[in-house]
């Protein structure tokens, strides 16, 4: 068993640093598209989506407190739902969920880097920068556990600076009355709920810390604390930032500018030079998200391999004696990310998913799998296991299920949902076929 390397602070910063960092910066305009520029509706869907992660994290913390084994969500699925669920969950995360998120967020870093140097933003530029960043962070987290953790802590602190600066500036120098009165008369009634899909992206990452659960000091105590503190902090920061930037720039102007609205906000506060400084902070912020996802991803093939649920299990399930990390698992994860980088490039180049990207639907689909774990906690309560209170064993898990259903229903508005759901289902079927072939003697 590896020496535990990560502190409670690192666990919290992994959640905060992975969740905050990219989505909130480049999804604000997407959210306003669905709310038709209505700030209050934007705040409402932020809060609705938060139900899914806050109560979800509280529910997952119950499972996290009951095991010390590596694997995070895969372990929880394996121990509390069964081997088949764990295998399906793991393959989905490895081949769809994590790589799609990593390449999209790394691409966002490329977008802001191009803005910083005044380079035309093209799919080709985004692809090249994405490949460079992905390669760097896989190397960093494979070669040194501590360096990856240190970068995560530093990036989390740095990324909060522009969020708070923009939020505060919006209320100080922005026009609150004008911003809140910009809503067109044609605003739809419930169509704004479709904003739950991009908001789910902005919130996603809260479960990543579970992948290093076995490497957190006193994990049975510290991981549940991190799973509670992190998401609540994120919700407060998001609402402050979203309202602040809408007041500062104006909802309709944000809709017109798209991702460039962040640059305009920074120029309003600091002028041209200050805007570049803010962009640097934002780039570091986004890279902190990439680092957090990579840090979690490199351990997933390993987690399945030690359960004989992944090809070449003996090789993938090895821990490098030199680096203290699952190097072969990391290499496998890296290759999958490279493939997804080109998939993302093709989808972007052909404009197959306007006002969206390849990561949103896998995020929505993941909430279907989370519900399975929430149900297991409810079963524990019904069976009177471990003396769970009604709040922890029934009320909170039910709210987590409701929150997940809200996000899933919102995600159905995306026209590509069916295609991606079929891809996810295909991956899960393949995983179960492999499981049956390799582990026919298991339950």
How would you characterize the overall build of this protein?
The protein has 443 residues and is an all-alpha fold. It contains 19 helices and no strands. The protein has one domain: Amino acid/polyamine transporter I, CATH 1.20.1740.10. The model has no long low-confidence stretch (mean pLDDT 80).
Q: What's the alpha carbon Rg, rounded to whole Å?
A: 21 Å
CATH superfamily: Amino acid/polyamine transporter I
- Determine the CATH topology: Amino acid/polyamine transporter I
CATH class: Mainly Alpha
Which range best describes the helical content: under 10%, 10-25%, 25-40%, 40-55%, 55-70% or over 70%? Answer: over 70%
Helix-strand pattern: HHHHHHHHHHHHHHHHHHH
Give a quick precis of the structure.
75% of the residues lie in helices and 0% in strands. It contains 19 helices and no strands.
């Amino acid at each position: 068993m590896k020496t535990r390397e990560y502190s409670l602070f690192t666990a919290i910063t992994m959640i905060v640093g992975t969740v905050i960092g990219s989505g909130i910066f480049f999804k604000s305009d997407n959210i306003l598209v669905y709310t038709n520029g209505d700030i209050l509706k934007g705040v409402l869907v932020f809060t609705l989506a938060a139900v899914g992660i806050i109560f979800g994290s509280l529910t997952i913390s119950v499972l996290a407190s009951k095991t010390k084994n590596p694997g995070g969500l895969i372990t929880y699925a394996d121990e509390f739902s069964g081997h088949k669920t764990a295998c399906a969950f793991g393959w989905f995360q490895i081949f769809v969920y994590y790589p799609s998120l990593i390449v999209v967020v790394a691409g966002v870093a490329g977008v802001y880097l191009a803005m910083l140097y005044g380079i035309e933003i093209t799919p080709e530029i985004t692809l090249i920068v994405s490949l460079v960043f992905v390669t760097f962070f896989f190397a960093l987290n494979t070669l040194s556990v501590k360096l990856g953790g240190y970068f995560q802590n530093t990036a989390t602190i740095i990324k909060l600076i522009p969020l708070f600066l923009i939020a505060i500036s919006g209320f100080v120098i922005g026009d609150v009355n004008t911003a809140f009165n910009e809503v067109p008369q044609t605003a739809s009634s419930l169509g704004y709920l479709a904003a739950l899909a991009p908001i789910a992206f902005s919130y996603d990452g809260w479960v990543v810390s579970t992948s290093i659960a076995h490497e957190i000091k006193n994990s049975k105590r510290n991981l549940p604390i991190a799973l509670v503190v992190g998401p609540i902090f994120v919700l407060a920061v998001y609402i402050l930032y979203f309202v602040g930037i809408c007041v500062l720039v104006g909802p309709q102007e944000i809709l017109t500018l798209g991702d460039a609205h962040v640059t305009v906000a920074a120029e309003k506060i600091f002028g041209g030079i200050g805007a570049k400084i803010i962009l640097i902070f934002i780039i570091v912020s986004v890279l902190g998200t990439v680092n957090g996802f990579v840090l979690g991803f490199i351990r997933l093939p390993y987690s399945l391999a030690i359960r004989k649920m992944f090809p070449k299990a003996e090789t993938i399930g090895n821990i490098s004696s030199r680096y203290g990390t699952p190097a072969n698992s990391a290499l496998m994860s890296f290759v999958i990310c490279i493939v997804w980088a080109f998939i993302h490039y093709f989808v972007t180049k052909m404009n197959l998913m306007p006002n969206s990207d390849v990561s949103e639907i896998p995020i929505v689909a993941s909430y279907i799998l989370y519900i399975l774990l929430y149900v297991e906690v409810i079963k524990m309560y019904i069976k009177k296991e471990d003396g769970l209170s009604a709040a922890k064993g029934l009320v909170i898990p039910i709210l987590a299920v409701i929150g997940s259903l809200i996000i899933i229903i919102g995600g159905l508005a995306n026209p590509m949902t069916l295609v991606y759901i079929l891809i996810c289902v295909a991956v899960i079927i393949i995983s179960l076929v492999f499981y049956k072939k390799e582990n026919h003697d298991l339950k």
